[in-house]
Amino acid sequence: MDEYDQKLGIKLWAEEDRPREKLLQHGRRHLTDAELIAILMGSGNRNETAVDLSKRILAFYDNNLTKLGKASIQDLSKFKGIGEAKAISIVAALELCLRRRETQQEQLTQITASSDVHKYL
């Protein structure tokens, strides 16, 4: 393999392009779903970076986090580079997202008219 075909590991990327550093410098909203999942995984496999692996997993689930959130540990472990520990991290993080969303829905009261204020009080 010549130098033009080599796969660059994340450690060889420009610092501002690395997911962890990008989160620190710019905040969580500046990262893609794949970059956030890559942070959870920590590493990829021999042939792809954690970001590339995350993109492949997301593509398998139609880039739909809800579908990914329904995946089991066994489902995720079928991807090369995803062992039980990485699968558990992804499943746990997505479960936290689900619980957070459920909690927020219970706490939010939308007020669009004075009658809503009356009901709320």
Helix fraction by DSSP (H/I, runs of at least 4):
55-70%
Morphology call: elongated
Radius of gyration: 19 Å
Sheet/helix structural class = mainly alpha
CATH hierarchy: architecture: Orthogonal Bundle
Number of DSSP strand runs? 0
> Approximately how much beta-strand content do the residues carry?
under 5%
Written account of the structure:
The chain has a single domain, classed as DNA polymerase, domain 1 (Orthogonal Bundle). The protein has 7 helices and no strands. By secondary structure, it is mainly α. It is elongated. It starts with 18 loop residues before the first helix and ends with a helix. It has helices spanning 19-26, 33-41, 50-60, 65-69, 73-77, 84-107, 114-120.
Describe what is shown at a glance.
By secondary structure, the chain is an all-alpha fold. 57% of the residues lie in helices and 0% in strands.
Distinctive features:
single chain, DNA polymerase, domain 1, 121 residues, mainly alpha
Summarize the topology.
Layout: H1 19-26, H2 33-41, H3 50-60, H4 65-69, H5 73-77, H6 84-107, H7 114-120
Helix pairs in contact: 2-3
